[in-house]
Amino acid sequence: MTPEDLMKIIVFFLTVAGAGWGIWWKIDGKLTAARTEAAAQAAGASALASLAREELAAQKLYVAEHYVTKQGLQEQTGQIMRAIESVGNRIDSMSDRLDRAFESQSRRPAARG
């Protein structure tokens, strides 16, 4: 093997290695860009999820403050019905008392003088 042949072989391997390194450099650049883009999208998705979580918590709080549960409504309805019943009983007893008062007045003879 002559020095010229050896030089050709070395140049060939350097060319192949350079081409391989160039291809790897391009692929690595694209992978880095894809990683950067994916990280930005992940950060955006995380921020959006955090915002959605906050909005959901605010909505839950609003519903808890402004709406009543079915059980709570039944309890309140029961209390209101008992209060109405109590008022009705008081009115009935008042009319009975008035009836007795009028009956006692009509039994007494009116004093004329």
Give a brief rundown of this model.
Helix content is 90%, strand content 0%. By secondary structure, the chain is mainly α.
The run of helices and strands is HH
Query: What percent of residues are in strands?
Result: under 5%
Radius of gyration: 47 Å
Low-confidence stretches: none
Mean pLDDT: 89
- The best one-word shape is rod-shaped
* Structural class category: mainly alpha
Tell how many strands the DSSP assignment holds.
Answer: 0
Number of helices: 2
- Measured as a percent range, the helix fraction is over 70%
The domain tally reads 2
List keywords for this structure.
113 residues, mainly alpha, 2 helices
Description of the molecule:
The protein is an all-alpha fold and 113 residues long. It has two domains: 67 residues; 40 residues. The chain contains two helices and no strands. The chain starts with a helix and ends in a 6-residue tail after the last helix.
Fold topology:
Blueprint: H1 3-66, H2 70-107
